[in-house]
Amino acid sequence: MVHHYLEFERPIADLEGKIEELSKLSDSAGAGSFDTEIEALRTRLDTLRREAYARLDPWQKTQVARHPERPHFIDYVAGLIEEFVELRGDRKFADDQAIIGGLGRFRGQPVVVMGHEKGHDTTTRLKHNFGMARPEGYRKAVRLMDMAEQYDLPVISFVDTAGAYPGLGAEERGQAEAIARCTERCLTLKTPMIATVTGEGGSGGAIALAGANRVLILEHSIYSVISPEGAASILWRDGARAKDAAEQMKITAQDLIKMGIVDRIIEEPPGGAHADREAAIKAVGDAVEGELASLSNMGADQLLSQRAERFYAIGRSGLA
What residues does 222 pair with on adjacent strands? Predict the structure, then answer.
């Protein structure tokens, strides 16, 4: 498998290359020939990876959040949801594969699960439109939440999108209205809802699936009202200043939890979720399970009031 390395990961890539070369030499020279040297390099690699990821700036975190090898929705479903049955279409226009959803069992509990899917190669990225949903995707999500409420099922959502699709057709079919209705449906849902930002949480396209009782975020994910590139284009008329925008926008998990925009940070494996996908998926599952348990004894009215108060509270600490 060919790995994709970010710019700040170049020293890590170089060390992994040396380990691979030494391993090949060991194979040809006889088993165990360079075990001591290889083990020393692996220890150094682990230290290097931990150090690099312990001091990421907001722009580097943005790059990690967008990493193509990071687990996507279909990976979380495969690792956490049993008996998954996908439900397609909005019953109005079409099926949008940028948002996938359906029924399944999460660690034995029946749930409705939905989320953005970006795709992992050219074919699937085109199929899923890079995770940028059209109105049909949000209307499908509303349909799924209606069903969850009808059958008293918790909703688990996974957020990973640069934003809703801004194309002409999407706007003609009511993109803004669809996002607003989907956000409203999250906030009026009478069953527990847990949302997790697993990569990029961009603008209204993200909040439409994240109006939950509890909003979780992976350690190196981002959540913002606009992309750093978009903000730079508006503020400075220069998209190349995206790094400056990322630093000013407070989009990292660590900034967001201080402002009460997210409720919990899920620690990622050393080197990010893409370095150990199975561990990252398990960590998300454990966090979601814990949060669902904390909501299990709340009735519909309590869930609604808790969710409303959660969002009303955002920004209050900054008021005089």
Answer: 200, 252
Question: Would you state the structure tokens that stand for residue 11, as one six-digit string?
Answer: 């020293």
- Stated pTM of the model: 0.89
128 burial (CB, 10 Å; 0-12 / 13-18 / 19+) is buried
Helix, strand counts (H, E) of the chain: 14, 8
**Residue owning tokens 């226009």:** 93
Q: How far apart are CA 202 and CA 223, in angstroms?
A: 6
Mean pLDDT of 185-200: 97
Give 233-245 pLDDT, tens digit per residue: 999 998 889 999 9
Separation between Cα atoms, residue 60 and residue 75, nearest integer Å: 23
Instruction: Using DSSP bridges, classify how beta strands 109-116 and 99-106 pair: parallel, antiparallel or unpaired.
Output: antiparallel
How far apart (Å, rounded) are the C-alpha atoms in residues 139 and 96? 9
Give the domain range for residue 46: 7-55
Taking CA atoms, 246 is separated from 10, 132, 240, 249, in Å, by 22, 21, 11, 5
Does residue 178 lie in a domain region? yes
Which residue's entry shows tokens 């931990």?
A: 50
pLDDT in tens, 172-191: 999 999 999 999 999 999 99
pLDDT for position 319: 45
The token pair that represents 131 in the structure block:
């995770």
Say yes or no: 195 and 282 in one domain. Answer: yes
Beta bridge partners of 105: 82, 110
Find the Cα–Cα–Cα–Cα dihedral 230, 235, 238, 240, rounded to 10°: -60
CA distance 317 to 244: 25
The CATH number of the domain holding residue 188 is 3.90.226.10
